[in-house]
Specification:
The structure holds two protein chains of two kinds.
Chain A (H helix, E strand, L loop, with lengths): L2 E5 L4 H12 L4 E5 L10 H6 L7 E4 L2 E4 L1 H11 L14 H34 L6 H21 L13 H4 L2 H4 L2 H4 L3 H4 L2 H11 L2 H6 L10
Parallel strand pairs in A: 1-2
Antiparallel strand pairs in A: 1-3, 3-4
Helix pairs in contact in A: 1-3, 4-5
Chain B lengths: L2 E5 L5 H13 L3 E5 L10 H4 L9 E4 L2 E4 L1 H11 L12 H34 L6 H24 L10 H4 L2 H4 L9 H4 L2 H11 L2 H9 L9 H6 L4
Parallel strand pairs in B: 1-2
Antiparallel strand pairs in B: 1-3, 3-4
Helix pairs in contact in B: 1-3, 1-10, 4-5, 5-9
The chains are: A alpha+beta, B alpha+beta.
């Protein structure tokens, strides 16, 4: 049975998973959840994702949620496409440096990028009042954190080393919304962050899904 | 050569998380206290190890690693042959572990940390507590723990029936909640309460609490008492 991805087409976390499925050329069926109507909070949905969040996958009866866990599962299960390096290294030190980079993403990037995007993009989309103070302090902290990124990316091409990994790709959904939120940090913080960010934005897998996740039956 | 752990000698946060993992696995280490009070972690010298100016950091014979969860994962993999298996290896079991680990940093830590910052750190620095902000993070935590109550009614630990790092990652911030005036870990429901008691009663955590975070060699009593049965 083909893998099913349940989510919202433009959801950040849904597109995070879709990107990796496309990277690894895994055929999948996309099933759209009507978040606007609260389908993700329905009793039926909560059976599969008890926190009432999108996305989740159903891989032939195996249910998994949390976008980064799903991405890791895909990389674990499927071989990297011919001519590419795996998105998670297998040698112990390479893997440790990947875990360090993956942890940087959810500790030093997401906690600040997400509130900024929520205030100025998501809330605006739903005509909710935005909290400028939250946006300002989030961007201020993100600015300081990106100094760490600038230092790391001056010594190596990607966050975990010289090969791209999931840790880099995980940044795309929120990083690409910062400009819409009103912050150009990703291209003004420093030359190294700019170089890295622009490269990520050119990734074919991201471009295939950035405007909305959809089914891919073949590659 | 023995591992060196750089961090804060207190039973909370990332340093304590790593110390608990070292104890679970029975790994001897040298502890070097970083003077956070005087901003040592923000100095250029320390930033060579940790470019974000945060603790902890690990030096394994010249291999430097930071981010507590990454350090714990590295230790679990490098010392897979001793102590409890903290990360499953089978494909689906590992995926369910990653799901639980993601839930910890997405649905638990942000609210637990916010509660700690508001309810414990602020009074410590004689700053007024924002009651509304504190209530908000406790309320979000409460909603998420409702789901933990369901999950932990079906299985012993968060990733399945075995203790894993996903459970361990909760300890060092979860135990500060009581100090912030939040008793959710014991009042939410019988399943969370049972799980929380089990996780915080592990010899590895008790050794962090009782013996503190310090250089620990094989012959130390703290080392022997900290190693859990696999």
């Amino acid at each position: 049975m083909v893998l099913k991805l349940y989510g919202m087409p433009v959801s950040t976390c849904t597109r995070r998973v879709a990107t990796v499925l496309v990277e690894y050329k895994v055929p999948f069926e996309f099933v759209s959840i009507d978040v606007a109507k609260g389908e993700h909070k329905s009793a039926a949905y909560l059976q599969n994702q008890p926190f009432g969040q999108v996305p989740y996958i159903d891989d032939d009866g195996f249910i998994l949620f949390e976008s980064r866990a799903i991405c890791r599962y895909i990389v674990d299960k499927y071989p990297a496409p011919a001519g590419t390096t795996p998105l998670v290294p297998s040698d112990i030190k390479g893997k440790a440096l990947f875990e360090q980079a993956a942890s940087i993403e959810y500790s030093d990037f997401e906690p600040y990028a997400y509130p900024a995007v929520r205030e100025k993009v998501f809330k605006a989309m739903r005509n909710l009042p935005t909290d400028q103070a939250v946006y300002d302090s989030s961007i201020e902290t993100l600015d300081a954190k990106l100094a760490g990124y600038e230092a790391i990316l001056g010594k190596q091409k990607y966050l975990a080393g010289n090969e791209i990994t999931l840790a880099d790709l995980f940044h795309l959904p929120y990083a690409t919304l910062l400009a819409k939120a009103g912050s150009d940090l990703m291209t003004t913080k420093g030359p190294n962050v700019t170089r890295w960010y622009n490269e990520l934005c050119e990734r074919p897998s991201w471009n295939a899904v950035k405007d909305g996740a959809k089914s891919f039956s073949s590659y | 050569m023995v591992l060196t752990l750089y961090g804060l000698a207190a039973p909370l946060g990332g340093t304590a998380t790593v110390a608990m993992t070292l104890a679970e696995k029975g790994i001897p280490y040298t502890f070097v206290s970083v003077d956070l009070q005087h901003g040592e972690h923000k100095q250029p010298e320390f930033r060579k190890k940790q470019p974000f100016g945060l603790v902890p950091a690990l030096d394994d014979d010249g291999f430097v690693l930071y981010e507590s969860r990454a350090i714990c994962r590295y230790l679990a993999e490098k010392y897979a042959g001793q102590g409890p298996t903290l990360i499953p290896t089978e494909l689906k079991a590992k995926a369910l572990f990653e799901q639980a680990a993601a839930v910890e940093f997405a649905n638990f830590e942000p609210h637990a940390r916010a509660a700690y910052n508001e309810g414990v750190l602020k009074p410590h620095f004689n700053l007024p507590i924002d009651a509304s902000a504190l209530n908000t993070c406790i309320s979000k935590l409460s909603d998420n723990l409702d789901v933990y109550e369901v999950i932990l009614g079906k299985q012993r630990f968060l990733a399945g029936d075995e203790f894993t790092l996903a459970d361990l990652f909760h300890v060092a911030f979860g135990t500060t909640l009581a100090e912030a005036g939040c008793d959710l870990m014991t009042s939410k429901g019988p399943n969370v309460k049972r799980w929380w008691k089990e996780v915080t009663s592990r010899p590895a955590w008790l050794s962090v609490l009782n013996s503190g975070i310090k250089t620990t060699m094989c012959e130390d009593d703290a080392f022997k008492s900290g190693v859990s049965e696999p």
